[in-house]
Write a structure and sequence with these properties.
transmembrane; mainly alpha; 9 helices; single chain; cell membrane; ExbB/TolQ_transport; 85% helix; 305 residues; 2 domains
Length: 305
């Protein structure tokens, strides 16, 4: 009995402890699948936005080009188009006047530069085609281009010598008659070169005032509209006044090229006409010195003395 008692005494507690430990272990193992099963549905909704976010970003990126392509640029409410559409008849007429001035100025500048280049080229043609090496002036004139101003001057001098006969012309000596004819031809060439310069001078002096008139009228028109609306805030005043100031800018943009072009053409005309005057003086010396009538007159005067 004593041995059995001692066995039960020592073995029973050990068996109880092992049984309780096994029960606790089974309980924890049973709770872990339950927690895993309950945690997975909770984690799924949290993970769903993370998986949906790239799709939404891709849809937004793919939709962006269509919205950018379909969007139309907004019209500038304070540009030249708005100035034309919103302006009255006076503002539109002022704009048209300055546009005509600007187009006319550039047209005159281009045409006059081309004309000056032609006259300068004709002067070079005189030496290139050996004008002074011909037998007489008639042959010299024929070697030049038909549109050359130097041929025109030469032919006028030859014609003056040939037609110096008549009741009224006999009272004028040959030198004065030829000089007058050559200078008349030279003045004709100069008049052709200077045509249009008066227009440039007029545009250069009046275009700023035309633009200033448009500005004053535009400001008056804008302030009248603002007073009628009853709103004098900065955003209501700045736009119309800025549109009116564009008129002054257009006037200056019209006047500055006209003034610069006028000064440039006048300076080049002086150089071209100096070349033409020197040529005319040389032709006059040849016509007077090589004319038989002049030689006879000079010999008679020497004999009488």
């Amino acid at each position: 009995m004593s041995k059995r008692y001692h066995f039960v005494r020592y073995v029973a507690p050990v068996a109880f402890v092992l049984t309780m430990a096994l029960a606790v272990n089974q309980t924890t193992m049973a709770q872990q699948p339950a927690q895993t099963a309950t945690a997975q549905p909770a984690a799924a909704p949290a993970a769903q936005p993370a998986t949906m976010a790239p799709e939404q970003q891709q849809q937004a990126v793919s939709a962006t080009p269509f919205t950018a392509a379909d969007a139309k640029p907004a019209d500038n409410p304070y540009g030249l188009k708005a100035l034309w559409t919103g302006g009255d008849i006076v503002s539109r007429i002022t704009l048209l006047i300055m546009a005509i001035m600007s187009i006319g100025s550039w047209y005159v500048i281009v045409i006059k530069v081309i004309a000056q280049n032609r006259v300068s080229g004709a002067f070079k043609e005189v030496s290139r085609k050996q004008f002074w090496q011909q037998k007489n002036l008639q042959q010299s004139a024929e070697v030049l281009n038909a549109q050359s101003p130097y041929r025109y001057i030469t032919e006028n001098g030859i014609e003056a010598v040939q037609h110096h006969k008549g009741a009224l012309q006999d009272s004028i000596d040959l030198y004065s008659w030829v000089s007058m004819s050559l200078h008349r031809a030279l003045d004709h060439v100069q008049a052709r070169l200077q045509s249009g310069l008066a227009f440039l001078g007029t545009v250069g002096s009046t275009a700023p005032f035309v633009g200033l008139f448009g500005t004053v009228w535009g400001i008056h028109h804008a302030l009248s509209a603002i007073s009628i609306a009853g709103q004098a805030t900065l955003d209501k005043v700045a736009g119309p006044v800025g549109e009116a100031l564009i008129m002054t800018a257009i006037g200056l943009a019209t006047a500055v090229p006209a003034v610069l072009g006028y000064n440039f053409l006048v300076r080049r005309n002086k150089v071209v006409m100096d070349q033409a005057r020197n040529f005319t003086s040389d032709v006059q010396c040849v016509l007077i010195g090589g004319n038989p009538q002049t030689k006879n007159t000079a010999s008679k005067e020497s004999d009488a003395s």
